Amino acid sequence: MAEEIEVPTEHLHESIHEAAERSEEKWLLRVALSAALLAVFAAIASLLAGHHANESLLEQIQASDQWSHYQAKSIKSMLLKSKSDLLETLGKPIDSKDQGKLAEYADELKEIQAKAEELEHSSHRNLAIHHNLAKAVTLFQIAIAICAIAALTKTKWLWYASMIGGTGALGLMGMALF
Less CB within 10 Å around the terminal CB: N or C of the chain? Predict the structure, then answer.
């Protein structure tokens, strides 16, 4: 199982909340609320990133299992083909069951290959989603930190910058999921 991305923002929330309580300025309450909302989205993105990393890993393992199965069937098919070729070379009759089995192996190989390729594709898709969600978590964390700096320094433009960063993180999260 993939390790979950940690979002260590509790200390920042406490700092923002304390600054908002001590201040006469109402906009600091909005800073505290927006930081809390960003933390919620960061936690959701973190959980989803971990989920998609796990799914990617499981599907890659299943794809490897399918390729091993493919290889085993391929070896059986080659052995049976070699036997048939040898009998044909010696002028001996080839059992019709062997011919049927060779056709059966060929069909099974196609099915196994298709399943393995599908699992690999799904694994790559889940990994790409994980990467985008991990980027969103990082951007959320940066936005939360900038919120804290804005509250502590009472600088509105920093808060606006953090909201732009949070909006970008939401965009990444949305792109990853939809």
Answer: C
32/113 Cα distance (integer angstroms)? 54
8 Å CB contact between 126 and 48: no
Instruction: List the structure tokens of 55.
Output: 């799914």
Q: What are the phi and psi torsion angles at 51 (to 5°)? A: -60, -45
- Compute the residue count for the chain: 178
> Over 60: is that where the pLDDT of 177 sits?
yes
Measured distance CA(36)–CA(158) in Å, rounded: 16
DSSP string, 6-39: P---HHHHHHHHHHHHH-S-THHHHHHHHHHHHH
Record the pTM.
0.77
Beta-carbon contacts of 156 under 8 Å, excluding residues fewer than 6 positions away, are: 27, 150
